[in-house]
């Protein structure tokens, strides 16, 4: 298996994030993402940075990438704005160390209906990692689903990744993606042993509705400017 090069900016971002989560908790994952409205005015809002596509902080997926991930609902304005203009800048301020990462790039929207071939330009940012997942270790439901969907394909299967993210997203967060009625929790009990699809017979319809609204925003990073009180501004890409 090929190994993904670990760019300096990714290494620094990961170590700063770890340090800031230790100091100030998960609020260190909040950042602001900018888009451009149809009338050319800027729009900025807070999102949770979900880490790197195809990776997990506690579980080896067998893949690694330099692509940053945000999860959103298809009804949010940013989805339409990104379709219209995929350029973005993310401002990620980490309070614990007073560091700022300004990350520029373009965003792909991965929703229910997507064309895998239109995502080929992302392949150079993803690779099978050298440390493949251990067949004997206990896999989360999300990873079990991913492995079923991904199978042995050479390139990352984006449906497999979208499913993995949905399953690990959490019951309350999934419930927010149901719009037809008020739901507080949306648990997934099991995954189909053949297809890897999520199941909970009692609420399957609501789960499918939430999955329809579930969107991955994938950021291909083209510039990184890091600022810290001790080093000032440093361009890292
Ligand atoms: C701490 C915090 C975290 C948030 N995380 C997300 C997120 O991960 N994804 C998201 O779509 N919205 C998130 N939001 C809500 C957005 O800031 C925004 O209000 C919403 O996405 C609608 O914005 P839009 O219509 O301009 O896209 C978060 C808000 C806060 C305050």
From TrEMBL:
In terms of Pfam families, this protein maps to:
Pyridox_oxase_2
Query: What is the name of the gene encoding this protein?
Result: PARPA_07865.1 scaffold 30876
Q: Which GO terms describe its molecular function?
A: FMN binding
User: This protein is called what?
Assistant: Pyridoxamine 5'-phosphate oxidase Alr4036 family FMN-binding domain-containing protein
Organism domain of life: Eukaryota
Pyridoxamine 5'-phosphate oxidase Alr4036 family FMN-binding domain mapped to chain residues: 7-110
Taxonomic source organism: Parasitella parasitica
